[in-house]
Amino acid sequence: MYWHTTIADRASYAYDDPWTALQHTAALHDLFNAIGGELVFVSVQFHRGMNQWYLGALAPAAQALEAIPIVDTALRTGSSLRRFMLSWLYADRGALDEARALASQLSEASRAKKDRLGESRGCWVLAEVLRRMGDLDGAERELQVALAMTVPLEHPGVLATLAALRLAQGRTAEALAATEDAVTREATMGGCGMFRGAFVRLTYAEALHATGAHDAARRAIADARAHLFTIAAKIADPDYRTSFLERVPENARTLALAHAWLADPDAEQPGGSP
């Protein structure tokens, strides 16, 4: 059980392989059918929801995570993960008010318990939601708290949110500096927590483009697209492969930018950051 749990955690959380992680979740489900037990059931639901979110299956992911509030008190250092993921997932589905409420609950509850890890995650996802809502000042406040507390593996993802915020603020040089830091950290560690690697690569390309480094931006978006295709090639189920490429916002935007920039080097950016 613990081997499957570890792979279901790490393959996607840090190593960009959500399909393998989902297969180990299925193995956990087989164990639950064999031996039962609430802990096994909760672990199955949690890992299924997490990896379905990473794969863009947003509705079933939300259903799985909503069904296990016990995770918020049962996982110790991981107790913040369910609300973090569910809040970001709500934002990905466009339910920004629900996302903000849950992120605020996470950050406030963690602060009251002096749980720095939970508070950093709560502030990070709240900043991401506020950025998407256009509350740039609020996002700035939350991000500064998150940056002061975040663990190393999640730091690149927080920096990607910071870069997206700086782009929205028109502070393009600072956005590029943040993404360069994120890219360096991810390369040094060999991973990026919360499956935010695609977000890091996307904001890096966008920051390069915004600062006028268009050739470098095209190379970066081509690399980002290639990375997505490498991950997608491992996904045996065609529905999951499609949802991964089309329903994960940063993945869909990466493909849209690659199509625009590589087909027409002078094209403007479509839309805005996810």
Explain this structure.
This protein is mainly alpha-helical and 274 residues long. It has a domain at 1-68. It contains 15 helices and no strands. Helix 1 (2-13) packs antiparallel against helix 2 (18-35) and helix 4 (58-66) packs antiparallel against helix 6. The longest helix has 20 residues, at 214-233. It is globular, with a radius of gyration of 18 Å. The model has no long low-confidence stretch (mean pLDDT 90).
Q: Name the structural class.
A: mainly alpha
Instruction: Quote the average pLDDT.
Output: 90
Stretches where pLDDT falls below 50 for ≥5 residues? none
Number of helical runs?
A: 15
- Morphology: globular
Largest sheet: none
Distance separating the two termini: 36 Å
Helix content: over 70%
Tally of DSSP β-strands: 0
Helix-strand topology string:
HHHHHHHHHHHHHHH
What is the radius of gyration? Answer: 18 Å
Give me the oligomer status: single chain
Query: What is the percentage of strand-forming residues?
Result: under 5%
Please describe the structure with a list of short key phrases separated by commas or semicolons.
mainly alpha; 274 residues; 15 helices
Summarize the structure.
It contains 15 helices and no strands. It has 274 residues and is mostly helical. The mean pLDDT is 90.
Layout of helices and strands, plus pairs?
Layout: H1 2-13, H2 18-35, H3 38-54, H4 58-66, H5 71-74, H6 81-92, H7 96-112, H8 116-133, H9 136-149, H10 155-169, H11 172-189, H12 197-210, H13 214-233, H14 238-246, H15 249-263
